[in-house]
Amino acid sequence: MDKAFLRLVAEDIQAKFGQDISDVAIVFNNKRPITYLKKHLVDVYGQAIWSPQFYTIQEFLSLSSTKTQASPLSQFFYLYELHNALLAEEGHEPETLEEFYPIAEIILSDFGQIDYDLVPVEQIYMELFDTTEIDLAFQHFTAEQQDFIRLFWQSFSAKGHTAVQQRFLKLWKRLPKLYHALKAKLAAEGQINYPGLYRELAEGKAEKGDFLKPYKKILFVGFNALNRAEALLFKTWQEQGLALFYFDADGHYIDDKIQEAGLFIRRNLQQTGLENALGEIPHVLANRTTDVQLYQCLGKNSETKTLHDVLLQDFPQGIPDGKTAAILLADESLLVPLLQSLPDLEVNITTGYPLIQSPIYGLIDLWCEVQMMISQQKKEKIPYQLLETFLSHPMTKVAPETKQRIQKEASEKQLFEIPVAEIDVAQSALPDFFKPIALKNDVIPGINRMIRSLLESMATQGRIRLIESDLLIETRKVLNQLHMGFDKLGTFSISFQIGLVKKAIAPINSAIEGDPLKGLQIMGLLESRCLNFDYIYVLGANEGILPKTSSSATFLPNNLRKAYGLPILENQDALSAYLFYRHFQYSNFMHLFYNGIVDESSTGEESRFIKQLVFETNFNFIKRVQQQTLLFPVQPKELIIAKEGEIWDKLYNRYIVNKKLLSASAFTTYLQSPLQFFLKYVAEIKEPPSISQEFEMNNLGSIIHRCMELLLLPYKGLADFTPTAVLEEKIALVDSLVLQEIGLQYQQDFKSYSDLNSLQRIMHKISSAYIQMYLEYDIANYQSFRIVELENEKDYNLDFDIMIDGEPSKIKLYGIIDRVDEVVDQDGQVKIRIVDYKTGSDKVLFSKPENVFAKETENKALLQTLFYAYVFEQVTGIKGLEPHLYVARRMREDGTLFRNNSGSMVFTDYFLEEMKNDFLDFLRETLEELFNRNIPFKHNPDAHVYPSDPYTLFYKYSVPETISEDE
């Protein structure tokens, strides 16, 4: 790296002043460079000397006044009262705080710019309607400036104004009065704001006009974009021999009059007439051929992941002694992902950790949302997701047993909404979090109580973290200011107070400071002014971010801003260009990262500043495109579980030695995915309980099965047949029975249909309709019935012979019998049936038997029903069971007997017995494969995977089996 800018400044100070610098003032735009210049002065002088006095520009100019600085909130409340007083004078109704707040920020911003640039307030807000008046009022303006003013006023018709224009003009005419009233109010309170301070100084009205007297010289270092007040003051002090100016610039963008990066320094040197204390502007950029690494990344957060790898390559042993490195955040929203991605390097972060990106803001925001519901909207219940967010938040410190109890109860009852009165989080850092605030004015005290509890909680556990405590304390200060303003002005709605609280605390941040002279420095582009580093890493170097494509809201239209020399969007571009270009003057290792993905927030293009540098300079830009990042560091492999060691022992002992029952669903799970069978039934990785607002067929099926059992239970075991006509009267009981079962399912006592939430009402409607359909089907198709078995989950299991490693073994099969009955059909024939109820997309149809008796079975329900039938027949000795499937969606069209699509193969009589034998062979073959050591557990990539399958991550890299040429 060539000599750093501040090193050159330090050498020039020694050359000009020798060791006599104790009465020299050195002024910067911000605090950050002060430490660096001190270090360079120590190196240059090489001995102890009396230090000069260092200031930021605002600190320095504040020496001219004894008044205190008015906070933004104080100015807002002053402005509100004054504006309503002016409305009263005009005979208008006062505005509410809610109505005024959106425009107050704009008005204060405009007033500030008017003061900084010394614009006559009455003149800029003058109401003009014709060209003659403009010519007379603005004779001292250039023709171009007068044209800008004409363009603005021509937008208002000379013949009359629309309602919107009328309202705008009324506000426009009121603003000069409001400006002067605010000035008077601040003066009466012994306060001032920075724009007002600048204006007083520039106009010779400073309270302490001799504040420069203690200094023999004031050095202004690294200034770029000057407002008109600064330009006037700096020029005056230079002429008086009091000031020197050190400009950090390069001839590449200073000499080229159309180069935006040099716009402001050209103005300072050529228009304002300031002199550069360092002499002639150097020409460095044009002569450099340094490599610049440009990284196109796959998303914003991927920039920080890529940076992590680059830092490890550059600094495998840490940052070498004598070298400096900085990460510059063109996109400051990347701070948090950056902190999560940094390798183990010493860092210093002065860009500040924003409250809005911290867990604290999330907790305050959650409290506000809860209070909006229960206090503003008068709701007695809140969505479970809000409670879950509280339980999972790292700062609430909910006792584990409390968290487990609430989650278990909510899962079992599927509580999508939780009654606030029943929420008990006494065992947490915030036991009163869900307590409704009693009064509208309790919003800010409520948040302050929460902050106090958080600070106490952190202290008692010995875990006070400096950043979090700083953020909490700063938040409390802002809230107290806001509360004082509310107390003076009356009562406001909870929603407005919450909205204002969020706006007021959003800008808060806390510095995460380390050593500013050692390690990796992290800062925004603006904070990097005057500083140089050997290694530079710029994150967010995207068009639309560098530079930004939007400007602040204003009531001063662009044409007027141009006429009066106020900041416009082009000025912002020029400032961004300068901040970016200057790092190419010194750094030898430049790394630029940008988001290459096109989405609603990104163009996917690198900044145009980069393209300009590629075209204008001799830097060697090396573009690198990030490849798709994967979960695994190497080429991912399919998850295959070999049946060996502990895996085999667990499988064999579980089912063969210990006779664990194997169910029909376990059997069909193995067919669909042997890997899922392993995860679910061998490794016993269970899906965690959860709250879902999606419709769950499992719950629906449980309710329907239970209701059908209760309806048919009176007929179980009767010796005689019962006419199906009796089921007519059962239909009237269905609704109340379903309501009762939904209550049992979710462990709640529902008295009526109106007690159900929206999802439960859907479940009630569908369950009732399905059950009624089942009953009506039996009434229409059968004369009478006799119930043999009903919902038996324990009595039907048997040993099944299979071969394992060439030796005979037994595995115990287990069947859940929904219903076995004997029926007399309309032709008088008696049949014995096994019935399975299905609520999903199952069907009785199939294409051909070989597609059923296969790993990729096309009819899982048929295999399960044959499984149940086989177990029942073997246990009871009853033969000839017909498998029937009650699928409510299709039973009117397709019936309940399994058959092929053409109807030529129906599971009845001789064909049924043949299929039962084929099933038996297929069952034995499948189970012997399950216990074949040479066949591992792997997922079948052709199997249908349901969206609700909790094991999909394990199937991610499954591939079809390859077949050799010989085979």
Automatic annotation (TrEMBL):
InterPro entries: P-loop_NTPase, PDDEXK-like_dom_sf, PDDEXK_AddAB-type, Restrct_endonuc-II-like. Residues 662-941 form the PD-(D/E)XK endonuclease-like domain. It holds the Pfam family PDDEXK_1. This is PD-(D/E)XK nuclease family protein. It comes from Sphingobacterium kyonggiense.
